[in-house]
Amino acid sequence: MKTKRSVVWACAFGIGLTAAPHARAAGPGARHAATSASASAEAKPDLGEPEAVAKERARSLFDKGVSAYREARYYDAVDIFLETNRLYPDPKLSFNVGKAYEGLGNLAGALRYYREYLRRVPDASDAKDVDSHVRQLEQTLSQKGIQQLTVISTPEGATLKIDGQAVGITPWTGETFAGKHRMVLELSGYLPSQRVVEVDLHHAQDFTFELGLEPKPPAAKPLPPAPVPEPRMSVFTLSTLASGIALLGTALIVQAAGSSNATGISRTSAVFAGAGGGVSVLGGLMLYFDLNPTHGSATSGIVWDDHGLEHGTR
Predict the structure, then answer these.
(1) Helix or strand or coil: residue 46?
(2) What is the 3-state secondary structure (H, E, C) of 251-297?
(3) Is pTM beyond 0.90 here?
(4) Fewest CB within 10 angstroms: 59, 60, 113, 170, which?
(5) Residue 211 burial (CB count, 10 A)
(6) What is the dihedral of CA 266, 267, 269, 274, to 10 degrees?
(7) Helix, coil or strand: residue 53
(8) In the listed set 184, 215, 246, which residue is the last one of a domain according to the structure?
């Protein structure tokens, strides 16, 4: 086919300025330059610089790639065309990369980029010719018992495993032997996706995967507030208060019994009164803390709560 004899000389940037001289040099293959700009339009580059600057850099690189291809420096041509496409994407550059790979004798590389060209512009004016050449390359590859496949995921950047072995990052293109293979795609934040596919020996294939978002774990429920104990009077408090009252009562009885024989408070009565007063004050303090349990924990500033803890002794 004619496309085998030339590289695409015209690119979306500057067809009016550069296509004519390149087309004359290209001969019959210059019809690739006639591919409409609308058919090859893709997302504009976002490189943090004005579009005009990126366009000019891409044009300069493109000219260098054409020179490298003419001089049969196919390795250089591949690198330059790929860099040009990165700066200013254009589907025809995929065709150029395929031509450069074919010049190297790398038929798998040529097949990959011809297929990419058709994927990017399926309605290209030369699609039938390129597709026919793709079929020839597929048959040549099948004679080795292998075939090419492309794995595309949404979103891109997933790790691809084929038959348990990691082979690359999507979008990925490579070759494998015909038959069934298990593909697994993994991407952080997304659920793993796996599928058993069958590779046709005679035709290259595209396999697409849609990755579902990984569900977010449920929010942790807050711990219930620590229960506040109800105020109550302990047995020790009651006993202390009763003892204090009993001692004070005893002091009164002793004083009353000895008042006819002495003046003032007797020594015995004073002892009972002192002991009763002290015990009563202690009982009063105990009663205060019993009726205000929150003050008991305020001294340490820590509320001990073993709710939800795992104890090593269990």
Answers:
(1) coil
(2) HHHHHHHHCCCCCCCCHHHHHHHHHHHHHHHHHHHHHHHHHCCHHHH
(3) no
(4) 60
(5) 20
(6) 140
(7) helix
(8) 215
